[in-house]
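Backbone geometry:
***
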Amino acid sequence: MTNDDRIALLERTIREEIVQGERRDQPIRRGLRSLRVWMSRHPILEKTYRVTVGVLGGGLSIIGLLLVPLPGPGWLVVFLGLAILGTEFHWAKRVATWLKRTLDRFWTWFTARRAQRRAQAEWERAANAHARQAQTP
């Protein structure tokens, strides 16, 4: 199995796990929904929860954006912050969905470009080797 095959397999596995984790019938999601319904009956608790979610999710998103240029989990932290915000704010869920699609398109473009460059380099190496062989008496 080549390195490109391993990367493709890993990407496919990650996408499948994301789809599995986003299913609404997961037991944890059901429990959190029922907890949220209970909380909505208590206005002070609901307000406190929304403020906490806003501060925590916003803080994580900002920290993640600051980490993006550095080596490490910058985008992961951004997505975690947006996921937390998305539990209460619909705009954050839309932003996270748009960002996921955009990064997926970029990654597809980047891997295709990398494969094209590798193929071009291989072709040039083969052409140079053939030219050297033809020049040898």
The two ends are 39 Å apart (CA to CA). The chain has a mean pLDDT of 85.
